Amino acid sequence: MIDLAAPNKPRRASMPADVNLCEHCTAKCCKYFALPIDTPTEPKDFDYIRWYLLHDRASIFIDDNVWYLLVHTTCRHLQSDNRCGIYFTRPQICRDYHTDGCEYEDDWTYDHYFETPEQVEEYVEARYGRGKGPGDRSQSIRSPRPIGLPLVS
Fold it and tell me: Which phi and psi (to 5°) does residue 25 adopt?
């Protein structure tokens, strides 16, 4: 088995149950946020997803049949030692977050993960057929190819 943990970072299974995992963590949970999005059902939905992926530091993943927009951005209060700079006044979502199911091991996987619009196009083509989309079987999710400019002689 390949150990994907950061150097000098003990594996979760090797630590006693009462150890605070955050003491050894790289703060992965503070370097992105993910929001559930509606499951795409028609070509325009996939076109929105393609649009999301045209933006820097955005990706899409599917986990347990739920679609998410993932934004790779670091919390402005994360300190260089990976501790929270506003720990005692942190938002409730941070207070509710537990290490029971966190991504401490750094080897989290998703059912599907998209980083580029082309990956979404390939997914739609594989799932619904080439040049097709869900719902309207005659419409592609790709934008029409632009007409070339005439050559000047």
Answer: -90, 160
Answer for the pair 139, 61: CB distance below 8 angstroms, yes or no: no
Residues β-bridged to residue 61: 68, 113
Q: What is the pLDDT of residues 22-70, one digit of tens each?
A: 777 788 889 999 999 999 998 889 999 999 999 999 999 999 999 999 9
CA dihedral 116, 117, 118, 122 (to 10 degrees): 110
**Contact predicate 24/114, CB 8 Å:** no
Contact assessment for residue 112 and residue 21, using Cβ atoms and an 8 Å cutoff: no
Name every residue whose Cβ is closer than 8 Å to that of residue 88 and which is 6 or more positions away in sequence.
none
Cβ distance 91 to 77 under 8 Å? no
3-state secondary structure of 100: helix
Q: How many residues does the chain have?
A: 153
